[in-house]
Design brief:
This protein is mainly α and 464 residues long. Helices cover 57% and strands 7% of the residues. The protein has 17 helices and 8 strands. Strand 3 and strand 4 form a beta hairpin. It is elongated.
Amino acid sequence: MEYRTEKDSLGEKQIPADAYYGIQTFRATENFPISGIKPKKSYVDATVHIKKAAAVVNSDLGLLESAKAEPIIRAADEILGGKFRDSFVVDVYQAGAGTSHNMNTNEVIANRAIEILGGKRGDYKLVSPNDHVNMAQSTNDVCPTAIRIGALMEVLKLDATLGKLETAFLRKGKEFDAIVKSGRTHLMDAVPVRLGQEFTAYGVNMRKHRAAISRAAESCRELGIGGTAAGTGLNAHPDFRKRMVDQLKKQTGIDLHMADDYFEAMQSLRPMVDLSGAVRNFAQDLSRIANDIRLMGSGPKTGLSEINLPAVQPGSSIMPGKVNPSMAEMVNMVCFQAIGCDTTVLLSAQAGQLELNVMMPVVAFNLLHEIEILTTAGDVFVRFCVDGLTANAERCQAYAEGSVSVVTVLNPHIGYLKGAEIAKEYVASGTPLRQIVIDKGLLTAEELQKIFDLKGMTEPGIHK
């Protein structure tokens, strides 16, 4: 392998000659061989957008000559187009604040810009990672801005998945609306409900989470770019802040605005906590719904077997013919991971001190990761599970008719205590509820026929 020599304030290093990254990135790969996990695509894209916007703005302000700005912009566009992705090599777990990630981006863009100008990689006299690509910026305002923009990019995808989940559940709610089943509270027999009511509720729940996540994401639209190192804006033109926001809006198509206080925007990771919390809330409900689907699909002979789940793969290496609720199980695992990511975001956000939160690298990864995996998991859950669900109507009807709690409908006629006596006798003897009531002379068969309307029990009202 051929090498080139690069120098920084700590000394010299031999860098692979074909590498687009430079000495500071190389030091980070030596210092932090922790997980092998590299930055999320949306985080890289957001950071590159910031570099491109800064080149445009600084050029327009007359601070960066066009001969340097133009190749920087071109290099950024190439990266955004999918090139040089393997050059972003810094581990997720790195030095505080994200200096290594910021410099990785600066160096890759600088070296590609140098190449565009006809120079050799590492010839930073042509384009400097610090003086030109990082002009009027600091890691301290670049990284929180990149997290916000990256999160907004990912939320757009999650919103689409939430829409699919909502639609799929509501469609099943309509399809299953006529199917009466036993409700269950505490996992015990309860009054009848319709299978469609359960699935409609899932759809409404998705709609509400979609709105909550959208509201939480609003706080990420406020950008502190231009605060530079501590919020003061040192080394940045007075017009840099507004122009950066306008340029980033133009590049990303996302509605963004300036922070009302640049010190707060750099001290606090409140927007990330807001969004992560809303995403976590969605994860816990999606996991709950996946559990319901697993439970209702249990069987086929010794479980509830109220619904039939699509078979996506063999369920056992030893038991022939076994099929498991694989997609719902996957969703549970993803939701647990997302909830863990949220905990990391929360703890990291409270760990900031004074003018800076140095835990931003781990916040960037965990926030974007939880959104990403919930997006993809929700999408395949719809395609490979929810869309293909069918109802076992006969089993549902049998459970509804056999539920102890249908006696509840008799409360207005015979009272709670007598109803409890009948329920106990039903469980102990197995004699049909109606027969017990008739034998005790509490109601006639004709009266019971009118009262025991199972479908009617799934709507408000007193049955007479």
